[in-house]
Amino acid sequence: MTKLKNCHGGTARILVILSVLILVMVAIIYYPAWKAFRFRSECIACQQAMKTATDGLRIEYLVTFDEGSIKDARKTLNEVMPARDDICPAHGNVYLLRNDEGILEPVCGLHNDDAARRTRLNASYAGNKLAEARKDILEKAGKDDPEPEKITVTVNNKPLECVYVTEEVPIRRGTSTTSGYDGVVAFYGTGEKGEINYFLYADENYCAVWHENEEWTGSAYDN
Description:
Elements: H1 2-64, H2 70-80, E1 94-98, E2 104-108, H3 115-140, E3 150-155, E4 158-164, E5 185-190, E6 196-202, E7 207-211
Parallel strand pairs: 4-5
Antiparallel strand pairs: 1-2, 3-4, 5-6, 6-7
């Protein structure tokens, strides 16, 4: 009887292990599809939210005939979409830019149809946040403390490590077509006086590069 019970116990364990393996395989197979479906759903929800926000800003303009400021536009969006901390459902950065009519309109840093435009906007935002964060760090640091190896900023509700380098990084396109890099990356360098004089931001599609006293360059600006 003891041997029989042990046999049944071993069979049960094997069945549990097989069940777990099957569940893992199903998850591996269907996770990419679920992830794509989720991203598509977020895109649709974001587009609808952007349309509502754009309509609100346009109505405000037609009522006041005033192009307004970024601060005024933010106030209008809070009135149009109350109780919304983020317009984008995926918490993407929302930038307010003037269209051809001079009216401010929202542009999502995650879901806008123009991928190069997203890269340009996110790169500029990340560079500004890097400068602010580095200033705070250096003010608290000792006189002889070295340059921080990494400074983390938040872009599109995700942490982005800006890595200190002493030479320019050989990224000319997006990380999806650049060997050795993956996802969204950022690098910065400093000059003789300690100021930031170089910044590179790259996502899967494009890269944007900034040099002190020069215009932005990179594949995101070639379109």
